[in-house]
Amino acid sequence: MRRYDTSLQLIPESNPHMWDGVQKAGMIAFSIGLLGLVVSTLGGGPVYAGIGLGLTILGALVYIVQTRKDGPPGIKNHYIMFSSALSRGYLGWMAAIFMTGFYIILYFHPQHLKSLVVLVNPLQVWLSGSSAWNDKGEMSQWFLYGFLYTVTILVMGVRALIKYRHSRYQILRTLSVMFFQLAFAFTIPNVLAKLNDGLYFEWANIWPLRYYELFPYSVEDLLRNGALGKFMLFWSIASILVITPILTYFFGKRWYCSWVCGCGGLAETLGDGFRQNSDKSLRAWRVERWLIHSVLVLIVLTTGLMWLNHIYGGSVLGSLSGKFSIAYGFFIHSIFAGVIGTGFYPIMGSRVWCRFGCPMAAVLGLLQRYFSRFRITTNGGQCISCGNCSTYCEMGIDVRWYAQRGENIVRASCVGCGMCSAVCPRGVLNLENGPVRNRTGIPV
Prior knowledge:
The protein is 60% helix and 4% strand. The chain is mainly alpha-helical. The longest helix is centred in the C-terminal third of the chain and has 30 residues, at 282-311.
């Protein structure tokens, strides 16, 4: 693209992908760090893991902080579809393969991450009071996973804060997901486990997202752990039956999906650059509705059957009771939510799991669609059909279709990220909480 000044001389528009010296140094450090991490998985030892992790974090931060000098505050939405990394080019596919490969190793071949586990084990012992190795010498990779997950959200959260520093809503939303991941999803559960003989509880996750939270064995484990365990059980039940409906009524599903949830936090930070790759077709919308509600039905049935089997002493399912949980954990929690849900960011957009599989998102979506005051209001007379809103919708909603007609957007899938409003050059879209209306359009 070129623009003209008053003297009619051609002035080339700056390309945001032309890095300065500091950004190049940061990217070099980041690349060397990734290489060190790869070497550590091949038996390179904790030294390579430490150097790799340190350089990866340092390089990313150096590059990210320097982007504040790329121009004035605001969302720069040009050149996106010309970027190989951001528009399903070869760099995007390489990123998808790398991220998918990491999750496969994490879930199914954790022995390759031994060097990284050794590296963070002192932190695990200090924070949670337990080692990554149990009395039988078996290694657990899950503290490492939580650590890397949290560090990623914090580092990429800095990027989001810089990128969206012109928007108070985006700044608060980013700070919120960073805080809830660091405090309620990582630090507090580990500290409480140290203080209460290994009792681990993820306060930021709610059933049915944390699918095993209300399984019989989980409930019994909480009841055996005194007053704190009973409070955790009370919190689990109140979260889904009381807190969720009330907050969704007033704020829509955004209160959780865009402000609290760790899955959403990773999507909004690490996955932010890939949001434009979500499929906006009607076919994708149909698949979305079938898949996400099928997963919700599946976990409700699984939980119900396990309780029936528990109440009747195993006479309902017998040995199949545990297999239901294992099957759900493998196919949905590990493959769908983990490997596909995160690894496919560069190919299918940043909300693959949230859009197509998350049962908590399905619950919140039904409440939002039929019970909530939240909607995105539009002013069709001001819409110029530029398409920025649809392009940047990570949930695959064709926002422009609604904006052109002046129709309010009340979709079950909308997570209220506010990006459509932020990229609109005419101020057509606004996130609002209004009175609930019945089918005749009369406020109730």
